[in-house]
Amino acid sequence: MGDWFQVIADPEATADEAGRLAAEVLAWLVERGIVRPERTTCVLGEGGHAPGPNWRVAVTDPDAGLLGLGTNGLGVITGRTVFYSMDLDSVACPYCGSVAVRGPVGSEWDFLPSIESWYAGGSGIRTCDQCGQAVGLNDWRWTPDWAFGHLGFQFWNWPPLDPSFVAEVSHRLGHRTRTPSGKL
Ligand SMILES: [Zn+2]
To answer: Which residues of 21-37 are buried (b: 16+ CB within 10 A; e: fewer)?
Structure first.
């Protein structure tokens, strides 16, 4: 059985504000009992926050099995990150709608030069082959969601997050968010 992740990614938070926003949202999630305050080894990565007593309010279809899993926490990610979904279907131009890349997995690497440039601190802008518009990585229409930014909340093995919960987190961030997901 693999591990499934969902991320609430904030592509609008700047590098400077990501740490503060991460701490604010985490404090709110702890206060609401959605995650526990202490950091433990409940995520794949550098430690995270296990489900709190009210974790069920964040999801659409609570499954008590979550609590029995070793990997069941929230990882708070700050720093320049490519928030990816595992199964890319297509990447389309927001101006002309033409599809620059269509799956299967691996074909996103057509975007690799732009992603590498963004990761190194550049703009990551890629020009549309069809209409000639210069389009930033976050402006391309990634299906399913990808996001390029400095802040993300990664939930491991939680049932699907409730859209109203995602909207609440977005509201607290003051930014539009994306929700990449995938199974390892
Ligand atoms: Zn175009």
So the answer is: bbeebbeebeebebbbe
